[in-house]
């Protein structure tokens, strides 16, 4: 059951808007062209730019026969690009250069099952090799070093699905050699010689114990130990080339994750950097020495700070020349050229080749050049006060033409979508987001709230989410809506809630626990029953299971089972009174199809309308553009009826996808006809 104070909070919200006119899309929205779904969610022209360690090659992913594949080109002549891989169904989304610069390596699963295999492709011959040829196995990359160019370390759970054994992989022969069995260990860290140096084990307190490794012998006692409070804000980064200095993030004895250098010989840890407002979330390490040269934290926006004078001028140059947030995603071993990506909130992401000596940026590509001519909206960082005094870093994006003076507030209230991130141990941040632009273009304000439990803002904020699913975490979302109403962004009767994974759970919770707080909801791969969620997580989450239980509820205790049931939207499904759209991947290993099936069945049994769209070839989200386009076609027409925004007709997009509609096509505008 929902706690009483939430109902009171919504009553206050509703009362405060009685005298307001109903929010409607901007009157002159039609002057901003409607952006076609295919432009926003179809294949980008190019993505994922990289440069080989030896600097001889550049690479990216781009369509080949309609599927994102890896392309390579001589760095001196990118026009001579050629496709290297031959994927025909699922896009390649993660790849990297082998340290020998002779191979490109990528991971791929089947139908979204997240059983990732590792593949290697010879750059000159195009020969592709399956390097981890094991079914129902998920590869992890443990160690890559330019000092050992023809070998890497990988983790494989083919012996025991719960634990990853560490193997040495010879890149020339493809031979796998067992280094260390991983039973009971959560992770491993290697030095630049690819020697295992640290292995971590989950402990009873919901955190980890770190053990030093010499050869293949693990020490009896840990040298670092922490509990649940520091488990999201303490992590090993890696070693520098002296083989004794280990870099780590550490929040013990402080609130935010700070950067330390630990001498593994003496045990002395030296503080290198910290930010009292936000966790350190990224570092730049020299490709030869491993020396950390710069670091970033992200409060409202990402902010890079210099540690080494060697990159001071480079950071200053990129800060002055790059439009929007920038990241260095690839560096040559000589460190003369960097691949830099830029991501403004109101322009499509781009990739650049940065020449350090010449201090010049050469554009490699814009990922979605068609968007350069479209009316993209600017994201506004805002700080929202929760009812109990916490600061909720949030982002507001307004529809085109609604904010003529650019002050981050519309001239008149507009309908709004509360877009909730997944995780929940993740965060929203500043930059380009395709779904946000899609919703804004349709006439909606988009509010993204970093509710308690979100990462990046220190351990106190993360740990405030413990035991808060469907209660205080949901209160934060309601407080975000109330802020938007008070500031004239929207009216309380014209707010939808939408999200994926935990954001899908938040959608279900919003409609089930606060039935009239939202006009409608869109749930994408969201869990409806927290007990079945915990009982069906992938086996390789075993090392994370104690932390899950500590932050949610223990299904092995009576109190824990009661908590899980109370916070599960499934058991309040009969309270749902507002329209609901659900999207699910049949192969999702995290949030199983049954999570959507069971709440649809519960609503169907009570004759409560719900539309359910199922994709048989997808997992935790929709990787194939044809399916993403199809679900967004249904979504925008669903929201148009609910909130009054504009929508591109579904047309043939659903028929072109693999979508099945097990229930409720008649409740989504245009869907029944689109299926004919």
UniProtKB/TrEMBL annotation:
UniProt keyword list: Hydrolase, Signal
Signal peptide per UniProt: 1-21
Pfam families in the record: Peptidase_S9
Biological processes annotated in GO: proteolysis
Molecular function (Gene Ontology), one example: serine-type endopeptidase activity
Domain Peptidase S9 prolyl oligopeptidase catalytic: 435-645
InterPro entries the UniProt entry points to: 6-blade_b-propeller_TolB-like (IPR011042), AB_hydrolase_fold (IPR029058), Peptidase_S9_cat (IPR001375)
Entries under SUPFAM superfamilies matching the protein: alpha/beta-Hydrolases (SSF53474), DPP6 N-terminal domain-like (SSF82171)
The protein's name: S9 family peptidase
Organism: Sandaracinobacteroides saxicola
Organism taxonomic ancestry: Bacteria, Pseudomonadati, Pseudomonadota, Alphaproteobacteria, Sphingomonadales
């Amino acid at each position: 059951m929902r706690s009483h104070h939430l109902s009171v909070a919504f009553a206050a919200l509703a009362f405060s808007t009685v005298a307001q006119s109903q929010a409607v899309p901007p009157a002159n929205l039609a002057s901003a062209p409607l952006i076609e779904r295919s432009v926003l969610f179809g294949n980008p022209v190019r993505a994922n730019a990289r440069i080989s360690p030896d600097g001889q090659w550049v690479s990216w992913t781009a369509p080949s026969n309609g599927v994102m594949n890896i392309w390579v080109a001589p760095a001196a002549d990118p026009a001579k690009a050629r496709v290297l891989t031959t994927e025909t169904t699922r896009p390649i989304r993660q790849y990297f250069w082998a340290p020998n610069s002779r191979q490109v390596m990528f991971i791929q699963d089947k139908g979204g099952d997240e059983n990732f295999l590792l593949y290697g492709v010879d750059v000159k011959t195009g020969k592709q090799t399956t390097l981890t040829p094991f079914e129902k196995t998920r590869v992890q990359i443990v160690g890559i070093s330019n000092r050992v160019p023809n070998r890497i370390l990988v983790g494989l759970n083919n012996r025991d699905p719960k634990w990853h054994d560490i193997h040495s992989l010879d890149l020339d022969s493809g031979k796998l050699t067992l280094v260390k069995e991983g039973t009971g260990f959560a992770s491993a860290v290697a030095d630049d010689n690819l020697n295992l140096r640290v292995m971590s084990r989950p402990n009873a307190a919901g955190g980890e114990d770190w053990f030093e490794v010499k050869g293949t012998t693990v020490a009896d006692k840990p040298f670092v130990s922490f509990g649940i409070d520091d488990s999201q804000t303490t992590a090993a980064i890696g070693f520098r080339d002296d083989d004794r200095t280990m870099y780590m993030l550490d929040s013990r004895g402080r609130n935010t994750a700070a950067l330390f250098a630990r001498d593994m010989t003496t045990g002395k840890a030296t503080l290198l950097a910290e930010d009292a407002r936000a966790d350190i979330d990224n570092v730049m390490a020299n490709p030869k020495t491993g020396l950390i040269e710069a670091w970033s934290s992200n409060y409202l926006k990402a902010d890079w700070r210099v540690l080494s004078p060697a990159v001071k001028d480079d950071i200053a140059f990129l800060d002055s020349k790059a439009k929007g947030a920038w990241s260095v995603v690839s560096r040559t071993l000589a460190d003369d050229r960097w691949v830099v990506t830029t991501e403004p909130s109101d322009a499509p992401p781009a990739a650049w080749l940065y020449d350090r000596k010449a201090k010049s940026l050469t554009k490699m590509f814009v990922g979605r050049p068609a968007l350069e001519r479209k009316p993209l909206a600017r994201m506004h960082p805002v700080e929202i006060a929760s009812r109990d005094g916490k600061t909720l870093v949030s982002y507001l994006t307004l529809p085109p033409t609604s904010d003529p003076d650019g002050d981050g507030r519309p001239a008149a209230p507009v309908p709004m979508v509360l877009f909730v991130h997944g995780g929940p141990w993740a965060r929203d941040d500043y930059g380009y987001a395709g779904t946000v632009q899609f919703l804004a273009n349709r006439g909606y304000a988009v509010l993204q709230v970093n509710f308690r439990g979100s990462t990046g803002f220190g351990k106190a904020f993360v740990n405030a989410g413990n035991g808060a699913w469907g209660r205080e975490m949901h209160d934060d979302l309601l407080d975000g809506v109330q802020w938007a109403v008070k500031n004239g962004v929207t009216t309380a009767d014209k707010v939808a809630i939408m999200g994926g994974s935990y954001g899908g759970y938040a959608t279900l919770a919003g409609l089930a626990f606060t039935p009239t707080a939202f006009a409608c909801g869109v749930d994408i791969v969201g869990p409806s029953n927290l007990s079945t969620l915990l009982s069906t997580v992938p086996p390789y989450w075993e090392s994370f299971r104690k932390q899950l239980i500590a932050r949610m509820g223990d299904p092995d205790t009576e109190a824990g089972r009661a908590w899980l049931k109370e916070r599960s939207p499934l058991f309040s499904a009969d309270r749902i009174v507002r329209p609901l759209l659900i999207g699910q991947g049949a192969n999702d290993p995290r949030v199983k199809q049954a999570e959507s099936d069971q709440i649809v069945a519960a609503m169907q049994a009570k004759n409560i309308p719900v539309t359910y769209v199922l994709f048989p070839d997808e997992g935790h989200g929709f990787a194939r553009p044809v399916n993403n386009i199809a679900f967004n076609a249904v979504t925008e027409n669903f929201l148009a009826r609910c909130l009054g925004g504009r929508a591109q007709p579904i047309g043939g997009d659903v028929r072109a996808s693999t979508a099945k509609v097990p229930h409720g096509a008649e409740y989504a505008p245009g869907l029944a006809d689109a299926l004919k």
